[in-house]
Amino acid sequence: MWTAEMVELRLEEAADTLRRLPDAEARFRLGLRSAWPEVVRDAVTAYGADGPKVSLGPPSPGAIDRLEATIDWLRWLSEPQRRIAWALASGISVAKLARLIGCHRNTVANRQAAALRIVADHLNEGAPSLAGLAKDGPGRHP
Q1: Is 94 exposed, middle or buried, given 0-12, 13-18 or 19+ CB atoms closer than 10 A?
Q2: Which residues form the DUF6362 domain (predicted)?
């Protein structure tokens, strides 16, 4: 039985998985680079004070499968619900999102809760296209 909290966890995992996928256009952009060294604009950058760059590891094949199924769930939502649910799952705070779309943070939270309930209700009805992928639940699997 799917709950709104389970759907929220799955959306957060999907956003994290999408962030970890390799950039397909990186090779193209690297081909457009110049042979000249980068221009250093200030002393802080010149001495590497901006900190180390940490890259995330690649997602597991199971996480990619769950990402594909989770993205398909978003079709059950209206455009504003989809944007709110995905933005919050991606890590944008409720207060910042409320400022961006011009409404109160309680309104954003209520719209997100309604969107999560809609998805959970569709999953509990046993939508035919996703019934097989929904059985394993929202947990993170290796």
Answers
A1: middle
A2: 19-119
Domains of the chain: 62-142 (1.10.10)
What distance lies between CA 137 and its chain's CA centroid? 18
Token match 């079709």: residue?
A: 75
Residue range 92-137, pLDDT digits in tens: 999 999 999 999 999 999 999 999 999 999 999 975 544 444 445 5
Per-residue buried b or exposed e for 116-135, using 16+ beta carbons within 10 Å of the residue's own CB: bebbbebbeeeeeebeeebe
Tell me the C-alpha distance between 60 and 55, whole Å: 15
pLDDT, tens digit, 9 for 90 and up, residues 35-67:
777 776 776 666 666 666 777 789 999 999 999
pTM: 0.71
Return all residues near 126 (Cβ < 8 A) that are at least 6 apart. Answer: 134
Half-sphere exposure of 120 (CA within 13 A, CB side): 18
